[in-house]
TrEMBL record:
Belongs to the short-chain dehydrogenases/reductases (SDR) family. The lineage of its organism: Bacteria, Bacillati, Actinomycetota, Actinomycetes, Micromonosporales. SMART domains: PKS_KR. This is 3-ketoacyl-ACP reductase. Residues 7-188 form the Ketoreductase domain. It comes from Plantactinospora endophytica. It holds the Pfam family adh_short_C2. Keywords: Oxidoreductase.
């Protein structure tokens, strides 16, 4: 049985890492999936081929999540080509690192543009296309729950904004049965933060389970929220961090 059969999803930043795993998992579970990407067209096309291998429709859209017009256009194109939009996953992100003294105004503005403004505007564009019972899921960070080392204040601040947005929109959209949630991943084995990277041993030391997550483990929680099992979960944060914040 495919729990997402007949559904259409849009995943921002879906060409690699956690985003690509989410795209593949939603397609495996029956959804047609569009994804946005910034530069790596060949990676996005490869993920689309994986979607079609499941017998679903896939679509890759070049869109910078820091560009208000681009994120709105990505939503409109998804709805136009697939005829509907049921699931929105806000995954696109950047990872600024450094002290507050080292952080430029340009980096501050860009981080907030991607993690806060871009998410807000993508949801604003998507909601009119959603039937009652739609799903909005944003990807936050374990740093919202715990920040054990320096250099990530800007990142943690920008991801923390998603918690307030999620709670507020759960109230705004609850009357239509649209659920709104945020998933906070912990250290996950991706190109951005590989399990064999320079800081990996240090990060594992903070994790109760002592290992990195696989991207598919984060995607499994997203798919659950998008499916029948998630219809009474709204306005909350779900942490998938192996006990990082324990």
């Amino acid at each position: 049985m495919e729990p997402l059969a007949g559904k259409v999803a849009l995943v921002t930043g879906g060409s690699r890492g956690i985003g690509a795993a989410i795209v593949r998992t939603l397609a495996r579970d029956g959804a047609d999936v569009a994804l946005t990407y910034l530069r790596a067209e060949h990676r996005a096309d490869r993920v689309v081929r994986d979607v079609t291998a499941h017998g679903r429709r896939g679509l890759a859209i070049a869109a910078d999540s820091a560009d208000p017009d681009a994120v709105t256009a990505a939503v409109e194109r998804t709805a136009a080509e697939f005829g509907r939009l049921d699931i929105l996953v806000n995954n696109a992100g950047v990872f600024p690192y450094g002290s507050i003294e080292e952080t430029s105004v340009r980096e501050l503005d860009h981080t907030l543009a991607v993690h806060v403004r871009g998410v807000y505007l993508t949801i604003r564009a998507a909601v009119p296309h959603m039937a009652d019972g739609g799903r909005v899921i944003s990807i936050g960070s374990c740093f919202v729950e715990r920040v054990p080392y320096p250099g990530v204040a800007l990142y943690a601040m920008s991801k923390s904004a998603l918690v307030g947005l999620t709670r507020g929109l759960a109230r705004d959209l609850g009357g239509r049965g649209i659920t709104v949630n945020v998933v906070h991943p912990g250290s996950t084995d991706t190109e951005m933060n590989p399990a064999d990277g320079e800081t990996a041993d240090t990060e594992r030391g903070y994790i109760a389970l002592g290992r990195y997550a696989e991207p598919a483990e984060i995607a499994a929680t997203v798919s659950h929220l998008a499916g029948p099992g998630g219809r009474y979960i709204s306005g909350t944060s779900i942490t998938v961090d192996g006990g990082f914040a324990a």
